[in-house]
Amino acid sequence: MLTFDPSTASAKLFHTWCELRGPDPEGEVRGGDLVEAVAAMFGAIGLDVGGPESQVDVPADHRVFTVIGLACDHSDELYVAGVLPGEHAESIAMLDRSEDHFGRYAHTFTAVSADSAADQARAGRKESDTAGVTDRYVV
Question: Which residue pairs from 129-135 have beta carbons closer than 8 angstroms and sit at least 24 positions apart in sequence?
Answer without folding.
Answer: 131/107, 132/71, 132/78, 132/105, 132/106, 132/107, 133/5, 133/7, 133/89, 133/105, 133/106, 133/107, 134/71, 134/103, 134/104, 134/105, 135/71, 135/98, 135/103, 135/104
